[in-house]
Amino acid sequence: MKGCTPSGWLIALVGLAVPIAITTAAEDDRAAERALMVQEQLANRRGPSRSSSAPPPSLSGDGAGGGAPMVSSRSVSEHLGIQNPKVLDAMRTVPRHWFVPEGMQRDAYADRPLPIGYGQTISQPYIVAMMTELLDPKPGSKILEVGTGSGYQAAVLTKFTPNVHTIEIVQPLQKQALPRLQRFGLAPDQVLHGDGYFGLEKEAPFDGIIVTAAADHIPPPLLQQLRPGGRMIIPVGPVHATQRLVVVEKDPAGKVRSRTVHPVRFVPLTGGPRGPEKK
User: Fold this and answer.
1) 46: left (phi over 0), alpha (psi -120 to 50) or beta
2) Which of 192, 181, 171 is nearest to 276 (CA)?
3) Rounded CA gap, 14 and 267, in Å?
4) Domain locations in the chain?
5) What residues act catalytically?
C-alpha cells in the first residue's frame, strides 16, 4: 500500500528493495513500545459503534480508489479489539523491529505496514494480530503460511506452535526471512521458497492455513490440504481493489463453509495456474 490512510484503516504498503535490520536479543530494549502498541492499537482498538448507521471503514491496501464491499457493523465490531490474551502476549513478545527495514526503525511499532522490497510489505501489527486471532492456532497445531514476506507473521505463529511451515515465492525475501525465523526455532525445511498457491503437499494436512496475499479465488490445493476441523484465513478479491478477509472452515465431515470478516486490501497472490507472471 502507498501512503497513509485515516486512523482505523488497515493498510499494506508497496515499496522498493531495502535492507532489513537484524538485531540481537541483547539489543532488544523496545519492550515498552510493544506494550504500548498492544494496549493502544490492539486490545483497546476502537471502531464504529454498533448503533452507528455508517458503514464500517474499508481497509485500504495501496491507496487506490474504488468502492469497498461492506460487511455488517456487527461483524466488524466483533473483530476490532483483539481479545485473545495469547495473541496479545505473542504481539507483545515478538520484536517487530527485527523485521523492519533499517531506515524505518522509528516506525517499527506504528500501526501501519512498511515496505520490505520487491513490491511486498510487512503488515501493520493490527492485521497480523487479527488474522492470528481468527486462525486460533493451538499448541501442536500444524500451520501453513502462504507468503512469508519479512517473516513477522510466521514468528508470531511460533508463539503458539513449533509446527509452522511458511512458503514465499520471492526467493530473496525467503532467504532474508530464514535467519530471522531460525531465531524463533524454525528449521530451513520450514521456511521454503516456492509457489504457495499449491500449498505444501508433502506436509499436509494442516490444522490451519493463513494466506497473506489476496487471491481472486480460494486456491483448491489449499482447501484440499486443510485438515477436517481446520481453518483457513485468506483475503479474496480482485487485484488492486478492496477484497474480503474470509474465514474458511472445514468440518469433520469435510464440508467447507466460509464467512466474510472484514473488507481489506492486500498485495496480490502471485503464481498459481498461470505462473509467477500472473497479474
Assistant:
1) beta
2) 171
3) 8
4) 25-264
5) 123
Closest CA to 267 of 122, 66, 57: 122
End-to-end CA distance of the chain: 16
C-beta separation of 252 from 231 below 8 A: no
CA separation (Å) from 81 to 99, 102, 138? 24, 30, 21
CATH number, span 25-264: 3.40.50.150
What amino acid occupies position 26? A
Q: How many residues does the chain have?
A: 279
Taking only the tens place, the pLDDT of each residue in 90-132 is 999 999 999 999 999 999 999 888 999 998 999 999 999 999 9
Distance of alpha carbon 180 from alpha carbon 157, whole angstroms: 14
| CA dist., res. 56 & res. 63, Å (int) | 17
Residue 17 to residues 11, 102, 123, Cα–Cα distance (Å): 19, 12, 16
**In the numeric block, which cell numbers belong to residue 35?**
506494550
CA dihedral (52, 58, 78, 39) positive or negative: negative
Contact present, 136 and 144 (Cβ < 8 Å): no
**pTM surpassing 0.85?**
no
